[in-house]
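Hey Z.,

So I finally got round to the NAP thing we talked about over coffee. Here's the setup:
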Amino acid sequence: MITSLVPATGAAVDDDALHRIYAYPATDRPYVRFNFVAAADGAATSGGFSAGLGNDGDQRIFAVLRRLADVVLVGAGTIRAEGYGGDLVDGDARSWRRAHGLAAHPAVAVISGSLGLDPESDFFRKAPVRPLVLTSAAAPADRRAGLERVADVVDCGADTVDTRALLAELGRRGLLRVLCEGGPAVLGGFTRFGAVDELCLSISPLLVGGDGPRIAVGTGPEHPVGLALSSLLTEDSALYTLYRRAG
Ligand SMILES: NC(=O)c1ccc[n+]([C@@H]2O[C@H](COP(=O)([O-])OP(=O)(O)OC[C@H]3O[C@@H](n4cnc5c(N)ncnc54)[C@H](OP(=O)(O)O)[C@@H]3O)[C@@H](O)[C@H]2O)c1
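And the result:
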């Protein structure tokens, strides 16, 4: 049965409602939420960045998702492209988090096999909490030594970062509400291992063309995962979807 979601109530969705909609379910293991923005034609970047795709509503939801998370997890490619220097949440969010029993700042974890990350970059220098670098035993020793000065560097696998070992490490640290902000290679990898619980996908009313990636890429076999729509919001012709793994 096809049903119509638009027009809907038209009532404004305030921050309290956003907190309810995006609240993590109770969990005793790392629960993995991905957040992405894509153009209507599927492009996950414009000019090499995601920033050109979002609008104000997307930014509002982006901030709410960070506010609710124990850890923000990102791939090294996204760190290299987008920087990620400085606080990930603002002062209001820090107050809200403290009042709700969370650490003022979410932890931040980056996945990197090569350890091709600059220890002098703003990501490390301006981080409000010591970052976690999730790598493998095969990572170059000299780069590891450089990063160990500024981050906790943890092996999660022998030759490559094993998704299950990564999640076990987050679980050991009590980081159960996982917000993964990409990028496409990380979503592709987690999809392959059936490790995606949720996808928050903002769809921008834009055609981008070009050859930018879609939100999940990978070289491994396909691993289709059924999703169920949990929420659909809209502002200025953008759609903000919340999908949960079906079943
Ligand atoms: N539209 C959106 O919402 C959105 C969100 C995020 C990012 N982006 C865009 O996506 C682009 C970056 O995406 P990307 O796919 O190139 O990078 P990515 O997914 O952020 O990171 C890929 C990197 O993560 C590391 N990695 C991931 N899985 C690994 C594994 N199993 N074992 C070892 N290392 C692993 C590797 O790092 P090393 O190379 O260091 O080994 C790999 O090169 C940027 O243009 C960014 O702006 C868009």
